[in-house]
Amino acid sequence: MTALEQVKKWLATFPQFDILTNFRVDYTDKVPGTGGILPDGLVEVSRRRDITGCTTVTNQYNFALYYVFEKAPGDEEGAEANADWIVDLQEWAQAQSVSGIAPIFGDDPRSERITAQNGTLYQADEEGTAVYVVQLSVQFVRVFKEENKWLI
Question: Where exactly are the structural domains of the chain?
Fold first, then answer.
């Protein structure tokens, strides 16, 4: 299963995910209750090699999560409900990561960290919809064991 598939499957276990009728990759429309995930790629955070020839690499996947909810202009109650949903998602992701329930991507599950942060209103329109975005990062370690190429 790819990293994207793992993240999508995991996000679907968020207890409040059921309010979304559709969740797509690289796309979301203006229909309330829909969302999308935009993969932002893999970043190598650090690399170190030990005396045995093993190379330990800390990597990070980055995703942007977009959610479209109802929000009429001036609707304070709707805005608060949407903001609460976003905060609940971020807190859930943190709890899943800390407790080891979140998916594993690397070779050292104890060092893995998933964060959902910077949830914010991205745009709102006069037709009664608002797009919110959350940054999701998955940091993990991979260990590469190299054959001893110096022995003949």
Answer: 3-145
User: What is the spatial distance between Cα 120 and Cα 52, in angstroms, rounded to a whole number?
Assistant: 46
Which residues are paired to 114 by β-bridges? 138
pLDDT tens for each residue of 22-77: 898 987 778 899 999 999 889 999 999 999 889 999 999 999 999 999 988 888 89
Strand 129-145 and strand 113-124: the pairing is antiparallel
The token pair at 3 is 């990293």
Q: How far does Cα 127 stand from its chain's mean position?
A: 28
Q: Which CATH fold would you assign to the domain 3-145?
A: STM4215-like (3.30.2000)
Q: Are 7 and 114 in contact (CB under 8 A)?
A: no
Token representation of residue 40 = 């932002």
Rounded CA-CA distance 42/149 in Å is 29
